[in-house]
Amino acid sequence: MNTLSKGEILTVGFMMFSIFFGAGNLIFPPALGQAAGSNLVPAILGFLTTGVGLPLMGIAAIAFKGGRYIEFIREKTYPWFATMLLVILYLSIGPLFALPRTGAVSFEIGIRPFLTDHTLLLGQLAYTGAFFGLSYYLALNPNKLIDRVGKMLTAGPAGCSWLSCS
C-alpha cells in the first residue's frame, strides 16, 4: 500500500481545492442563504448534501478503488451500461457543459464590454472560433498541455520570452 508524505497530501489537497472551487462556490452559498429566508437550515443541509457530500463520496469511491473505477463499474453492471454511463458522464462534464459555459462566460466578461451592438455578432463569431479552436488544439494531446500553455504564456516578440531574449 502506498502512503503519501505530508507534502504530497498538501499538494493533493490544494489540487482538489482548485478543481472544485470556483466563482459558483463563492457566490452561490450566500445567495442561497439569502433566498432561503427562514428555511436556512434545510437549504444548508441540501447544499451540503449535493454540493459537498456527493462530490466527496465520488472522490472517496474512486480513491478506495485505487483509481480503477472503470473496471469496478464494469464488474458491477453490464459492460454496455458502464460504457454508456461513462460516456454520458465525460461528455456532460466537459464538452457539453463546462467548455461552452467557459467560452460564454469569458466572452461576456472579457470581450463583450468592448463591442457595440453593430459589432457584437462578428465579435462573438470571431471569439467563439478562436476560443474553441485553441481549446481543440490544447485538447489534441493532453500530455503536452502544460508545455503548450507555458509556451503561449511566455512567448514574446521574435523569439523572446517576457523575461529575456535569446
Features of the shown structure:
166 residues; mainly alpha; 73% helix; 0% strand
Annotate the secondary structure layout.
Elements: H1 6-20, H2 23-36, H3 40-64, H4 69-76, H5 79-93, H6 98-110, H7 120-140, H8 145-154
Give an overview in words.
By secondary structure, this protein is mainly alpha-helical. Among the domains are: 23-77, no CATH class; 94-153, no CATH class. It is 73% helix and 0% strand. It has eight helices and no strands. Helix 4 (69-76) packs across helix 5 (79-93). The radius of gyration is 21 Å and the shape is extended. It starts with 5 loop residues before the first helix and ends in a 12-residue tail after the last helix. The mean pLDDT is 85.
- Share of β-strand residues: under 5%
Give me the number of helical elements.
8
Number of DSSP E strands: 0
Helix content: over 70%
| Spans where pLDDT lies below 50 across 5 or more residues | none
Cα gyration radius (Å): 21 Å
Q: What separation lies between the terminal Cα atoms? A: 47 Å
Concise summary:
Helix content is 73%, strand content 0%. The protein has helices at 6-20, 23-36, 40-64, 69-76, 79-93, 98-110, 120-140, 145-154.
